[in-house]
């Protein structure tokens, strides 16, 4: 056999072997206990889709949200907690089983108020333990479930109304029924692939009677059509076997979306708001739908039916009803007249009446949940629902850094990544109105750029002067009108701080912060007239500007070369210039496997190579729910897909790591996905990270924090992702590997924070502790495992609890050493348990795993903003250590006293005749002890006078907690207390030489052993 052939074959086999041995960490193994923190905010909350209250317990309420999952209140709506984090966060309906309301809850996913920015669902879910756990019950391809009805006499009989796909045809639409609790489903009403169930209600007094509102609708990226010949209202009186239209009295011609409600106290009374060209408005039937009469066509009842189609009737009074709308309308005369509900965030989507008191109401809006105690006249907002819907976020380089972003229908804001006491509502600052989108900080000046929908306003806000100027580019005489996307793109230059970009169909640039603009491109879109200036809305005109299409959507200037600029459009073009805009190349034709005209949602220009960029495409607005993520390394001449089956949901954003170009972060409609090998494998990040739509990602360069703008769960931060940068195959084959941590800063902070009530949301601060990060190839299950911090001489500073999981483990150290041994007493002395702070320097980290030992190091640094001198630090450490020693000396002294008293009392009890010698010991030692520690009272109302331990503890705790050198007063106090301690030691020695000596002689004669007193070293270790 040929020698070269043998060598080549062996090389191939070796290569295959190496590939087979490649270690791939997934999920929890990859991320370990690297955890996200959710910082809200909640002061602007987010859209509520559906409210559902418990039928017998007025304290329990569920809220289904547009993009923030399901939340449960157990205290009448005062506060809520999330119960649906692991599943699709876009909710259509929440339903409580009336036969088992404490346990059984059903959730249909997929928002039903079908605006442009709605997310999608992935099926029907059921919980049998009050929302603690959930099981999927089918309908994976339904996209939007708007109704669930349960037979109040039979929990196995359930009806589901599927609204279905918003952007395309779907045969999943229709009314479905199960008679076996959801094991099997039958479709019992279906019209066609364009018409879904927008409302399905059951007669509360007759479970065989059902009403189904069928709605024909379709949205595109450039328009919306509500209504058609197939929209209709149906009724069944035989549990869904047969259905009949009930249109007697309704308008003729095509109809649109219905709002529908039965009066619970009188099933004959049925209300319907009908969308139509003529005679639209509120209709009432007093004969269970046999005939209808138009009562009212007020604007508040008929405005935007695709967004406001909910009627709710008072459970006790059939003439009191509420209709969702811009401000919400309430009638108390059976629908003849209406007035607005009380002041609250506009866009009202759902209302529930309290089961016992109709003056008490809950209202779901675009800005969260509100409560009323006076029938809707005044409203109170729930302050702890962090379900804000960010479109974009960005960060600055302040310390702590700030986060900027725009919200759906809630303006634009900026707030801190940390704040004393936690991140509160009052920490956030408004910088825009309306629908907020991109918010960008000027790189060097205290100026913020923000915008509202469609570039109606583009604000340049001078924070110091509190001055705002509108700097939106304007059309030039004789040239085309500008087309700005509802979510208009802005960008700040990486190279010229005053340079600011905006995109219409053209790329605009300003070199003076927006005062003057010039176009540096031709029309970069397809400029397809079929997708422009169409009347939108269908039966009800709805042209808000959100349908403006064939526009630029994303702008990316290369961080390496300012002449390289990428532009992506909503109609599928990927344009690049390498000469600052003089010439442009459309590269989309070079992307294989991408459907034509797929929305370019984000382009990320690489920080590593100027020819490299990443493009994320979103096809959901054309009914394509696939994931599209591509990378080019040659200015778009060729592209490769980075998508694997591990990614769930269509993608919105990608962020390249600034240090490791193989580390990428991808935001999809169902969460965050991370790859450490350039896209070969992806893992979903789930550590305190809900399955929310991630619309934008930014990476803070100083802290290495990954900051996520979610469309439903506010801002989410993963602090310091730097360990992920270091992972490679060389590390993954090791049994144990310590990652190189960045130096930990001992921050000299101690200000006052907090002040919010327990019912207000407070975002978590990042941990200020040092992080010890290591990798375990296998989970440690058997044998001893310890982790300690040691000084350079090997002396243990503190012992920590090690993480034992396979993969990445993170253990925190709060810079504290072991606390002192505190003297035993009647009451606690909390200051005495203060552990002294370790000094700046390098420390050994020692991990013992069975018989093997692994070492690393960690560096602590003093606060760089500190004004404390090294001389003062030495003085502080010296006094702290002296007081620490005093604390332990006192504790040991009390130990010796207690042991002798204990022995003397035991002997006295056993031998009453020993009273003379034992009583002397007890009397003298108790008298001494009473001067050393508190021996009576409690920690509250019967507080005894502080003794030496209490005074020494207070001084020690005060000095140990501070950073600066001790004051003269503290040093004088130390001198006084140490004098008392020395005096007490001397007194004890006198007692020991007299009363205790006599007692020990007595014990010796009696054949008894003396009191068991440990050595000081033994006592301290105990």
UniProtKB/TrEMBL annotation:
Stretches for region Disordered: 518-545
Pfam name, any one: Sortilin-Vps10
Boundaries of every Sortilin N-terminal domain copy: 124-247
UniProt keyword Signal present: yes
Keywords: Repeat, Signal
InterPro entries per record: Sialidase_sf, Sortilin_N, WD40/YVTN_repeat-like_dom_sf, Xyloglucanase_GH74
Xref: SUPFAM superfamilies: Oligoxyloglucan reducing end-specific cellobiohydrolase (SSF110296), Sialidases (SSF50939)
GO biological process: xyloglucan metabolic process
UniProt signal peptide: 1-20
Domain of life assignment: Bacteria
Descriptive protein name: Sortilin N-terminal domain-containing protein
Organism encoding this protein: Aquimarina atlantica
